[in-house]
Amino acid sequence: MFDLDKLVNDYLVPFGLKIAMAIVIWIVGGIIINVVARLVRGAMTRRAIDPTLVRYTESTLRIALRIAIIISILSVCGIETTSFAALLAAAGIAIGAAWSGLLSNFASGIFLIVLRPFKTGDMISAGGVTGVVDEIGLFVTTLTTPDNLRVYVGNTKVFGDNITVYDANAFRRVDLSAQLAHTVDVQDAIARLRARIAQIPNVMSTPAVDVAILEFTPAGPVLAVRPYCHNRDYWQVYFDTNRAIAEVGGTAHWPVPAPRQIFMPPPGDASKAAMPVPSAAGGAAPASPLPNAPTP
């Protein structure tokens, strides 16, 4: 005969108590997690720790405490947690093998936070991308490029490549060049450019503007033009320096640089090369610069 009291007392009541206890543990545990995370975040913020590291620590703490709550609930419900731990470990191995790339990004993110080669707000060049760091996430680093594009770069690629931090030093150098013609007075050009570029806004007086001969080309000497400025003013100084080079050249009436070639005739043919060659119209055509050029 069906015994309802036995079903209720032996099965439903204990099961209901376990469910109620699990709900209480979940709710109370969630409150405790929020309180602990808030306290940890406040303590780290007061110590002026990097915001990215604060978010990392808070997220890791929440995940670890949530797993502990789940294990406690399983124990209350009568589920053997030892078997569950073994199952979780096996699942972790399988997931690790399948998601090796993601775990590599995660490990690289941890190293980026601990070693701190750069921080949020820095302008960097890493993983083939140049931009301002918005966030160093668990798996990717978020950058905003100068043309206002948001790019997500895997932490493995960032950490495994060369990292250039443009904001690490107080100022940087702008590297430009000015091509001169052969007939331009080089020393006068250097003095004019140095004086004009020093007047550009946001160009630093110390270090002073560098203007010097960089190399010689068939078109004439090339000057290296190198002002110094703050990182945030780089592109303004870059474009203004190019404009200043053009203005100085126009004011001084520098000729357009062009390659010059001098043809030297073989010994004994100089008089022949200089002789006028009759033209088809009966006049005299100018002598050809080439000693063995065909007669028109």
TrEMBL record:
The keyword Metal-binding does not apply. It is a multi-pass membrane protein. GO terms for cellular component: plasma membrane. Residues 102-164 form the Mechanosensitive ion channel MscS domain. One of its GO terms (molecular function) is mechanosensitive monoatomic ion channel activity. The chain crosses the membrane at residues 12-37, 63-87, 93-115. Keywords: Cell inner membrane, Cell membrane, Ion channel, Ion transport, Membrane, Transmembrane, Transmembrane helix, Transport. Residues 273-287 have a biased composition (Low complexity). Residues 267-296 are annotated as: Disordered. It is found in: Cell inner membrane; Cell membrane. Belongs to the MscS (TC 1.A.23) family. Homoheptamer. Mechanosensitive channel that participates in the regulation of osmotic pressure changes within the cell, opening in response to stretch forces in the membrane lipid bilayer, without the need for other proteins. Contributes to normal resistance to hypoosmotic shock. Forms an ion channel of 1.0 nanosiemens conductance with a slight preference for anions. This is Small-conductance mechanosensitive channel. It comes from Pandoraea communis.
